[in-house]
Amino acid sequence: MGAGTAVHFAKLGAKVVVNGRDAKRVAAVAHECRQVAKTSANVLAVVADLQDDKHVKDLVLKTIDTFGKIDILVNCAGIVGRSGVMDPEYQQLFDRIVRVNLRSVVSLISLVVPYLEASKGCIVNVSSISAQTPWRRSWTAYGLTKCALDNLTKCMAMELGPKGIRVNSILPGIILTPMIGESSFSDEQAIMYCESMYPLKRPGYVEDIVKVIDFLASDNSSFITGISIPIDGGSIVGPRVALITGSSAGVGKKFALSLAKVGFKLVITGRDEKKIKEVAEECRQLSKEKVLEIKADLLNDTEVEKLIQKTIEEFGRLDVLANCVQITVPCSISDANIMDTFERVFNTNVRSLVVITRLAIPHLLSTKGAVLTLTSDSGLLPYESEFPFCVSESAVDYFTKGLASDMKRQGITVLSLNSSLVMSSEFERNPWFSTALCSRL
Fold it and tell me: Which one from 142, 193, 198, 383 is the annotated catalytic residue?
């Protein structure tokens, strides 16, 4: 993107400074710029590592010594790096990504402000759509710096606006550049992913980015500052993702089929692999969107963690968690095995709900998603010989209310659907139940 931007501005007649750490690449891009520039004197090549403050100062001084002014600063340097927070090398990688993606931008802006004030110039920061929608588990450091960069853009727009300096940022989605190779995607995989996930059904190209940078750097945007423009093929508004527990049968199955009809990407899960496949195939008959099949026992915390992890690895987001798992076992307080029965019902209906909801919330925060929970009126009206179920349902009701209170300021919708003991059969006989629930999303 940086090379494409440099060549584009050289073609327009601008004086261009080409910068990077690799001398050969810098020379190659500078040569390409000179091929299209009005004169080769309009192109300055500077090898510099933006992690080094001395290099950054030298870069600015050489620009002023050569051209005498600065009108536009495009902060395009960025690295990805893949490492989970608990990986041994994470801290070292984190520090490096912060230095390149964020600290260098702060350093450059601080040095060029006097020159931009004199020219009434502008700054364009190249961020990422990852700033708004977290990507893979191993991209936390990258996404963090891009989120911070967007906020820096807004802060600088406020501070520098009175000086006549505009500051904006762009948020590219998947763009076919060499950085794709660093992200574990091949070009072919990136294209396939975008065809599946992006409404425009294609990845972005350097030209898509350059045109927006050109606009933000031109007088055509003279009254625009402090904004972050997604250039992502519509990925933010692409198909939503729903994970439905207990979706291999009953209510969960009916809800999955209803969401398939309205274009959701789905995660079908349960303990019976055969039933999971059957429901997934039914969903595929109703929609062209991807359906992920995951066998998982919600009483096993490790399997629940993997369920969430696989969902995010496959889709990169989560919009809806629908908790549709319920069991009831008729019993009496005098039964010899009453404690086993009670724990089985409570752990299935309540504990598993708490575990998966806690794991899902960080992802729902980024999409302003929803938690939907199937419960029963037995939490309010006790049933004879069903006390473990009644106790568990009252606990679910209270958890829903507490969670809704906690999440209301953070944009997550939390709902529960209470009904009688005929809930499952009613879903089977009356599709309007699931349609009504879909409309609440």
Answer: 142
- Helix H or strand E segment including 100: none
Strands 166-172 and 320-323, how do they pair? unpaired
Q: For residue 251, with 0-12 CB atoms within 10 Å meaning exposed, 13-18 middle and 19 or more buried, which class applies? A: buried
Per-residue DSSP letters for 338-406? HHHHHHHHHIIIIIHHHHHHHHHHHHHHHHT-EEEEEEEGGGTS--TT-HHHHHHHHHHHHHHHHHHHH
- The yes-or-no answer to whether 48-234 and 239-439 have a common fold is yes
Of 257, 360, 230, 263, nearest to 308 by C-alpha is 360
**The domain 48-234 is classified under which CATH number: 3.30.450.20, 3.40.50.720, 3.40.50.2020, 2.60.40.1180?**
3.40.50.720
What region, left, alpha or beta, does residue 323 occupy, with left being phi > 0 and alpha being psi -120 to 50 degrees? beta
Q: Where are the domains of the chain?
A: 48-234, 239-439
Question: Whole-number mean pLDDT of the chain?
Answer: 89
Would you call 142 a catalytic residue per the annotation? yes
Task: Judge contact between 345 and 389, C-beta under 8 A.
Answer: yes
Residue 199: which pLDDT band, with cuts at 50, 70 and 90?
confident
User: pTM here?
Assistant: 0.62
Predicted confidence band of residue 385 (pLDDT cuts 50, 70, 90): confident
The superfamily in CATH containing domain 239-439 is NAD(P)-binding Rossmann-like Domain (3.40.50.720)
Give the Cα separation of 55 and 61 in Å (integer).
Answer: 10
